[in-house]
From TrEMBL:
GO terms for biological process: protein localization to membrane. The chain crosses the membrane at residues 280-302, 346-370, 376-401, 413-437, 449-472, 500-526, 532-560, 572-591, 603-632. Belongs to the nonaspanin (TM9SF) (TC 9.A.2) family. Residues 1-23 form the signal peptide. It is found in: Golgi apparatus; Membrane. InterPro entries: EMP70 (IPR004240). This is Transmembrane 9 superfamily member. It is a multi-pass membrane protein. It comes from Gulo gulo. PANTHER family: TRANSMEMBRANE 9 SUPERFAMILY MEMBER 4, TRANSMEMBRANE 9 SUPERFAMILY PROTEIN. GO terms for cellular component: Golgi apparatus; membrane. Pfam families: EMP70. Keywords: Golgi apparatus, Membrane, Signal, Transmembrane, Transmembrane helix.
């Protein structure tokens, strides 16, 4: 039984990596069954734009409102993402068609937008804002039909259907601004198989919209809120003039279609990718290149080390050995504690905390438990896990601090619990002030900020202290050689041993292994896409750990061969060298992929990028440091020291 339990996690991992990528539902997320003419509630989530990066709540614009506005209770992740889920006045009944219905109808009078409202709507349209609605927790999508004609023959055109998240608020044409004021909802249902005497039940499996702009004069509305739309393409679009009041109708129609898609697979439409083959190719390419280079590096290092150790352990020609230069000559200084041991151990403790959090989040997400259907679940899980992983970060930091001859464990524990989280909180607070100034829903509300502070000082801080206490009390790491009282003089170093050159050299391999995945992650964050390829991400994470470890070992070996024993800080900095390339890539992505021109969106982008780069440097630096530390202890334990 115990052996079977041991194999279970590995079986799950193998299954999740080999199976086709599909939206997966955990027990407890139950489908909702609808009967004929049951109400299907349409809710609004937010307005987003990749140009401004500032989400706004739905009723920040003068849309038609229901009699009573009700906001959904949201989890931490939804609040941090800027979601503000609210009810709307759309009346949709299961499998019941609606030709045309007028919203905000008061005896068929059109809606009048004031000059201020018109200016705001026009501004949002020019900023490329999208509206996000949901029906039965399914996000609305706009169908895009792209024709790929490689041969130049019209008859051989292939239709490639893709979906755009949300729908465009409006469009501009020849310096005129037009609003999408008519929404054609197309909802797909799956009919559930039941026994003969039972009533049919339906499940919503897709939610599409065709937004249209139709001017006031072309819509014929009556007293019962019904309306008639112009036929064909004869109508003109509804223009919004920001310099005056505008009159218009907000209308919608509902069309239902039966679908073969089952409820469990309904998210697949939203997660379809046109470049899955490219993704697979890039991942396999990364795996092959990284493991090939890792194999070569390992072989060279192992062969060189064996030769070194064999030479150093020859007892018959001790004099030759003493004359030789190399890493053995610094054995009396290699474990000399570095400057600022408290800060080093605190940063490494935060790195361990991040490593544990990221590993668990990616693994759980890979098993399908944090799918996009669970809104905000990924961010909520990450926040809570980071808090609870404080006990492991504190333990690692405490033990290392004692090994480095530190004595003030309480101050060290406080430093570990506050240094990295304090920087993150400080940057986020400053950015949040700017978002508040823009009245965006992306601003974290004050009660949520207080709750996060309570989590930090009420959960994370005590757990870090607990872990630090036990780590500091535990036996320090056993270094195989004694440290001399007088430090050895370090010879002049070659140009390629410069710290910045080391960062450039060490960062290429880990960054090369993951930069394709970085593109998809950036697209998910900055262009409001869904990210769901956690099987790929787990593979990339393993490659990153392997490549960081091996490049760190190579760098520390070269440094010790150059008789420079100050490796503690240098190795931590150099191992995180790929973070420098992430920063360069983020700047490239900003210039080439995004259309951000204003100051505050640019500030948000680079502020959050700075946090990502800092976190990535801590993560990779910690992985490299511990790999190098194990390597250094291993090689000095293998040679005979007189």
């Amino acid at each position: 039984m115990a052996a079977a339990m041991d194999w279970l996690p590995w079986s799950l991992l193998l299954f999740s990596l080999t199976c086709d990528t599909r939206a997966f539902y955990v027990p407890g997320v139950a489908p909702i069954n609808f009967h004929q003419n049951d109400p299907v509630e349409i809710k609004a989530v937010k307005l987003t734009s990749s140009r401004t990066q500032l989400p706004y709540e739905y009723y920040s614009l003068p849309f038609c409102q229901p009699n009573k506005i009700t906001y959904k209770a949201e989890n931490l992740g939804e609040v941090l993402r800027g979601d503000r889920i609210v009810n709307t006045p759309f009346q949709v009944l299961m499998n019941s068609e609606k030709k045309c219905e007028v919203l905000c109808s008061q005896s068929s009078k059109p809606v009048t937008l004031t000059v201020e409202q018109s200016r705001l709507v026009a501004e949002r349209i020019t900023e490329d804002y999208y509206v996000h609605l949901i029906a039965d927790n399914l996000p609305v999508a706009t169908r895009l039909e792209l024709y790929s004609n490689r041969d130049g023959d019209d008859k051989k055109k292939e239709k490639d259907v893709q979906f755009e998240h949300g729908y465009r608020l409006g469009f501009t044409d020849v310096n005129k601004i037009y609003l999408h004021n008519h929404l054609s909802f197309i909802l797909y249902y799956h009919r559930e198989d039941l026994e003969e005497d039972q009533e049919h039940t339906y499940r919503v499996v897709r939610f599409e919209v065709i937004p249209q702009s139709i001017r006031l004069e072309d819509i014929k509305a009556d007293e019962k809120s019904s309306c008639t739309l112009p036929e064909g393409t004869s109508s003109s679009p509804q223009e919004i003039d920001p310099s005056k009041e505008n009159q218009l109708y907000f209308t919608y129609s509902v069309h239902w279609e039966e679908s073969d898609i089952k409820w469990a697979s309904r998210w697949d439409t939203y997660l379809t990718m046109s470049d899955v083959q490219i993704h697979w190719f890039s991942i396999i390419n990364s795996v092959v290149v990284v493991f090939f280079l890792s194999g070569i590096l390992s072989m060279i290092i192992i062969r060189t080390l064996r030769k070194d150790i064999a030479n150093y352990n020859k007892e018959d020609d001790i004099e030759d050995t003493m004359e030789e230069s190399g890493w053995k000559l610094v054995h009396g200084d290699v474990f000399r504690p570095p400057q600022y041991p408290m800060i080093l151990s605190s940063l490494l403790g935060s790195g361990i905390q991040l490593f544990c959090m990221i590993l668990i989040v990616i693994f759980v997400a890979m098993l399908g438990m944090l799918s996009p259907s669970s809104r905000g679940a990924l961010m909520t899980t990450a926040c809570f896990l980071f808090m609870f992983m404080g006990v492991f970060g504190g333990f690692a930091a405490g033990r290392l601090y004692r090994t480095l001859k530190g004595h003030r464990w309480k101050k060290g524990a406080f430093c570990t619990a506050t240094l990295y989280p304090g920087v993150v909180f400080g940057i986020c607070f400053v950015l949040n002030c700017f978002i508040w100034g823009k009245h965006s829903s992306g601003a974290v509300p004050f009660p949520t900020m207080v709750a996060l502070l309570c989590m930090w000082f009420g959960i994370s801080l005590p757990l870090v202290y607990l872990g630090y206490y036990f780590g500091f009390r535990k036996q320090p790491y056993d270094n195989p050689v004694r440290t001399n009282q007088i430090p050895r003089q370090i010879p002049e170093q070659r140009w390629y041993m410069n710290r910045f050159v080391g960062i450039l050299m060490a960062g290429i391999l880990p960054f090369g292994a993951m930069f394709i995945e970085l593109f998809f992650i950036f697209s998910a964050i900055w262009e409001n896409q869904f990210y769901y390829l956690f099987g790929f991400l787990f593979l990339v994470f393993i490659i990153l750990v392997v490549s960081c470890s091996q490049i760190s070992i190579v760098m520390v070996y070269f440094q010790l061969c150059a008789e420079d024993y100050r490796w503690w800080w240098r190795n931590f900095l150099v191992s995180g060298g790929s973070a420098f390339y992430v920063l360069v890539y983020a700047i490239f992505y900003f210039v080439n992929k995004l259309d951000i021109v204003e100051f505050i969106p640019s500030l948000l982008y680079f502020g959050y990028t700075a946090l990502m780069v800092l976190s990535f440097w801590l993560l990779t630096g910690t992985i490299g440091f511990y790999a190098a530390y194990m390597f250094v202890r291993k090689i000095y334990a293998a040679v005979k020291i007189d």
